[in-house]
């Protein structure tokens, strides 16, 4: 195996870091009961609890970056699966079983704009 097989571009690393920070933000938004149901390292749990306590925008931003850093150092896939499992029941509750989803309605303009057509 040569060095090119392990190469990850800076852009790809940034995308992955951003995705982990977004997942961290989702964890911060969970209720206390939901957060307690997710298995995670204690350092991550403490960082999330600390972020909830903060009120200043810049402090929250720094704490979210710290949460992202912790998540880069751990395997975040199990946490993502648990987070998705928590969200799945709410998705099922929005659409009754056996019924098709409601149609998506689009609003079309009733007449063309003046000066845009023949």
Secondary structure layout plus pairing:
Elements: H1 3-6, H2 10-29, H3 32-37, H4 42-53, H5 57-72, H6 77-94
Helix pairs in contact: 2-4, 2-5, 4-5
Written overview of the protein:
This protein has 118 residues and is mostly helical. It has a single domain, classed as Diphtheria Toxin Repressor, domain 2, CATH 1.10.60.30. It is 64% helix and 0% strand. The chain is built from six helices and no strands. Helix 2 packs across helix 5 and helix 4 (42-53) runs antiparallel to helix 5 (57-72). The longest helix is centred in the N-terminal third of the chain and has 20 residues, at 10-29. It is globular. The model is unreliable at 104-108 (pLDDT under 50).
- In CATH terms, what is the fold-level topology? Diphtheria Toxin Repressor, domain 2
Shape: globular
**The CATH H-level homologous superfamily:** PSPTO4464-like domains
The residue ranges in which pLDDT falls below 50 over 5 or more consecutive positions are 104-108
Strand content: under 5%
State the end-to-end CA separation.
64 Å
Q: What count of helical segments does DSSP give?
A: 6
Broad structural category: mainly alpha
| Assembly level | single chain
Reported for the largest beta sheet, the result is:
none
Number of strands: 0
Helix percentage range:
55-70%
Task: Tell me the domain tally.
Answer: 1
The level-1 CATH class: Mainly Alpha
Radius of gyration: 21 Å
Mean pLDDT: 79
Helix and strand sequence: HHHHHH
CATH architecture: Orthogonal Bundle
């Amino acid at each position: 195996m040569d060095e090119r097989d392990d190469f990850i571009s800076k852009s790809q690393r940034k995308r992955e870091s951003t995705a982990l920070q977004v997942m961290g933000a989702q964890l911060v938004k969970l209720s206390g009961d939901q957060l307690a149901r997710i298995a995670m390292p204690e350092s991550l749990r403490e960082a999330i609890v600390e972020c909830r306590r903060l009120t200043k925008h810049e402090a929250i931003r720094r704490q979210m970056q710290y949460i992202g850093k912790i998540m880069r150092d751990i395997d975040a896939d199990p946490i993502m699966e648990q987070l998705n499992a928590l969200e799945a029941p709410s998705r099922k509750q929005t659409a009754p079983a056996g019924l098709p989803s409601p149609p998506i309605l689009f609003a079309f303009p009733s007449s063309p704009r003046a000066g845009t057509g023949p």
